[in-house]
Amino acid sequence: MDVRVKQEMMETLSEHRRDPNGVLTEIPASVIELSSSSSDSDSSDDSDDPDEGDNVNGAVLGEDGPEGRVSKKRKVNGGDFVLPLGFLAPLPPDEPAPIPLATDLVDVDVPATVELMEPVASRSLSSSVLCKQFWKAGDYDGPPSTDWDSSQGGIDHVRVHPKFLHSNATSHKWALGAFAELLDNSLDEVCNGATYVNIDVLQSKKDGNKMLLIEDNGGGMDPDKMRQCMSLGYSAKSKVANTIGQYGNGFKTSTMRLGADVIVFSRCRGKDEKCPTQSIGLLSYTFLTGTGKEDIVVPMLDYEWKQMEWSKLIRSTVSDWDRNVETIVQWSPFSSEADLLRQFNLMKGHGTRIIIYNLWEDDQGLLELDFHADPHDIQLGGVNRDEKNIKMAKEYPNSRHFLTYRHSLRSYASILYLRLPHNFRIILRGKDVEHHNIVNDMMLTETISYRPNPIAEGVPKDLNLSALVIVGFVKDAKYHIDVQGFNVYHKNRLIKPFWRVWNAAGSDGRGVIGVLEANFVEPAHDKQGFERTTVLARLEARLVHMQKVYWSTNCHRIGYAPRRNKKSNQSLGRDTSPDYDPQQSARSNKKSSSSSKRLPSDSDKFYSPVNLKKTGKESREFPEASREI
């Protein structure tokens, strides 16, 4: 069988060049030629070749390249292989790596490694590398990883890539939950003198885009606390009573959930108000991705009050300070150091001012946050916004919070705390948020005390912990609208708004709402739910039991047909907790005419107001009478 093999041959082309004396000389040029067989599989339509017919021999000669090579594409001997431009040209030299310089940057990994950002030519606040949609912003490819450096002593340390800022923020599925984290931080400053938190909308002077402002007049942060705030996992609040924060992660997740970048201004009075300081920190996802960083670095500036003026607090060198100023000015909404310092003039002595910019957009390219629907509110669009519910909220004012909290920050913030200090204000776009207790929307209320099983796994050591559950009908229940659920608070903070524990078929359960503060269950990191533990499962079972019994007993009072089915009533009175024993329940039912008068399980007991008085508990906090279910 005759087999033809492609061969690689060298062909010498001649080209003439005139030397300085005017004499023409012939210069050889080397080109690789690939000759192929004449089989049908190797042939193609030559009319598709743009170089066909350029000359008889099929060679295209152009300007002399380096070392006299032919610089244009060339088709060899009528074949259909075309040599690309620059073929066999020497490879360009590698770009020099940026020279690292020491700066006053905070690195979130511990121990911190010092790194300086290289200058970037672009002055835009947004990077072309970064997607403006939050759920897609983590899809970018950074530069290849470089060699890992060892910390002091030769011990390796874990590095944190900037993409972690985005993945960490995805714990907030709901944007209003991110606002709640920032409100928590301001409320925790009440012990340091905070009397308000202000949320407003600003406009950048650089690019005209909307920015978020969250500020309070608390104690502020000194340089060390500012660095802890910008780092991951540092929290002193877990050891302080009556504070909400405990994980040291809320600031990073919340700000990165609302926008790609945040700049923080904080002024602290210092110890005994003798050493005031003020600090500026920039946590910029845009900067980190735009410059190809492989670690999370935060440029910072510190000042101290000396000799009746603010002086630079330089922690390394003056050149490092200048580089930090340059970086912050380049990647922030402010145009100079003087412009940055003017932000402190807007504070009343001390406090913290947070500005979030490069806000996230939705799939249509519009801002995720709606600033136009209500001039005194910040709202969400998309799946969180239901125009039917908005219309119903106007018709049924007592159900307004249930119908609007998913998309309205004003509605959500009004029920976010069970109790609000009398001298603390939440100001949203120039108007105070009116604190609202959901109990005021209820009628025919009953109060039940719930105590977790002390031997259950995960129950706190404090055996005196219990929860007073107020259950009743919403005042609009007579219109038979589907409003139900329990507002579950933890340490004064709303964790589960209108938790729907009973998903019954038909109209059963409609109109029943409740309120309780459960400090014996542990909230999740995003504070939008609880950790799934045995204690939570038992609490959920009890709440289902409460709602079923309350509904079956009182539904006729709001226009529903009475529930008189004997079997149904028996099932409603049954203990549905995980430690329920059917045999024990059967023995109990023989001793009692109604299963609702005594619960068969020895754990998670209900206590009537009479028993509360015996144990020193008071039921006077609630306006209406209580009874045991």
Describe this structure in words.
The protein starts with 6 loop residues before the first strand and ends in a 15-residue tail after the last helix. Strand 4 (196-203) and strand 5 form a beta hairpin. The strands form 4 sheets. Strands 3, 4, 5, 6, 7, 8, 9, 10, 13 and 14 form a 10-stranded mixed β-sheet that branches. A 6-stranded mixed β-sheet has the order 18-17-19-16-15-20. Strands 1-2 form a two-stranded antiparallel sheet. By secondary structure, the protein is an alpha+beta fold. The protein contains 14 helices and 20 strands. The longest helix is centred in the C-terminal third of the chain and has 21 residues, at 534-554. Helix 2 (175-187) crosses helix 4 (250-258).
Average pLDDT metric: 73
**Silhouette:** elongated
How is the main sheet built?
10 strands, mixed
Number of strand elements: 20
Tally of DSSP helical segments = 14
Rg for CA atoms: 35 Å
Helix proportion range = 10-25%
Strand content: 15-25%
Q: Structural class of the helices, strands and pairings? A: alpha+beta
Unreliable spans are 5-15, 27-79, 96-124, 566-629
Report the end-to-end length measured between terminal Cα atoms.
Answer: 97 Å
